[in-house]
Amino acid sequence: MTKRFEIYKCEVCGNVVQVLLDSFGELVCCNQPMKKLQVQYDTNELGEKHAPKIEHRDEKKYVNVNTHPMIAEHYIQFIEGIDSKNNELHLKYFYPEEKPEFEVSYTSDATKFIEFCNIHELWGENNN
Ligand SMILES: [Fe+2]
Questions:
Q1: What spacing in Å lies between the alpha carbon of 77 and ligand 1's midpoint?
Q2: What is the reported pTM?
Q3: Is the pLDDT of residue 128 over 70?
Q4: One domain, residues 28 and 50
């Protein structure tokens, strides 16, 4: 059983997929079920480093994870925002050396942001 916007990872090859529409099947990769990733929330050092943060500058709203390294071995691969009705997804990918930030002035204040680190996986905002 899969639900919209859930994220799964293959523990063999590292494939990461996100569900667009609910269904009853099981996601399989490399001949085994994919692991459903849970969004992590923590106020410890690891959590503080990974939690997406909202900043307001020049009358615009941004989400970023500027507290995290952005080197090839360890970086934020994407940040996404999902609205409170689970109807809108806002996603941006990043590469090493890029600033992990994007403007989200068009999102509602109820939008929740998560990010994916290539080592530590999924993290959410700490204000939940
Ligand atoms: Fe990390």
A1: 10
A2: 0.94
A3: no
A4: no
